[in-house]
Amino acid sequence: MKTNNFPHKKSIALLLDPDKAKGETLRELLNIANDCKTDYIFTGGSLTFNGIDNLIDEIRHLSSIPIVLFPGNLLQLTLNADIILLLSLISGRNPELLIGNHVVAAPHLKDVREKLVSVGYILINCGNTTSVEYISQTEAIPSDKPEIAVATAIAGEMLGLRMIYLEGGSGAVNPVPINLIEAVRQNVSVPLVVGGGIRTKNDVKEIFNAGADLIVLGNSCEKNPELLKEACRIRDKFRK
Ligand code: 1GP
User: In the list 18, 27, 136, 146, which could disulfide-bond 55, CB 3.0-4.6 Å?
Assistant: First the structure.
């Protein structure tokens, strides 16, 4: 799979946590994902230790949706995904997550360059301390400081990162604020991904409207798979 058109148009990704997505739950969710033509399946997580390869195998049996590795740490590194996000946590100042892990991973990734997408990963504090913030030992950008998010995103684009990801964190109390998404959209031209705490179809509509290209849904779809269908319907309207 080529990554130079990733993501194409407005897109929806379903995030599957290898620790939670199993058995019948996984089958049901993937049936829905297939039916509504979900664009991508993301897999990874802040605390996931292993199980990514098994989950990828299972997904491949049940679906042909492209699989994107969204690694929470180096232990999750696998070459079996179709796309591998090379995340730089540019809102933080943890050198391991800015460059250290990349140095360790680079020799393993050098033969699959066509799968790699470098991402400026930006944490936004959306009301609570999320696992990604705690585990990464970084401080998220306050949600009422869009100018800091904008400056960070511009810096990421200037450094040559191919995508900006605004992350509220899994289970965030609120999604990334709309005015912050709009401000970032107006200042960078690379694809914009938004995820974390998105729970309603109205959230999905507003976030696409604000300029996101790709919306990532995790927890809320596990609890309410109907949201995935609704999100894909909204995506289809935006594509018309
Ligand atoms: C992906 O971390 C998110 O960016 C997923 O968050 O589980 O809250 O949807 P949720």
Answer: 18
Query: Domain boundaries in the chain?
Result: 3-239
Ligand 1 atom nearest to 221, measured from its CA: 9
Helices (H), 112-165: 131-136, 146-158
CATH of domain 3-239: 3.20.20.390
Q: What is the pLDDT of residues 78-112, one digit of tens each?
A: 999 999 999 999 999 999 999 999 999 999 999 99
- pTM of the entire structure? 0.97
DSSP result, 211-226: T-SEEEE-HHHHH-TH
Q: For position 31, what pLDDT does the model report? A: 98
Token pair in block for residue 199: 């729970």
Checking phi first, is residue 77 left (phi over 0); if not, alpha (psi -120 to 50) or beta?
beta
Query: Which ligand 1 atom is the nearest neighbour of the CA of 195?
Result: 4
Residue with more model confidence, 12 or 49: 12
Distance between Cα 6 and ligand 1 center (Å):
19
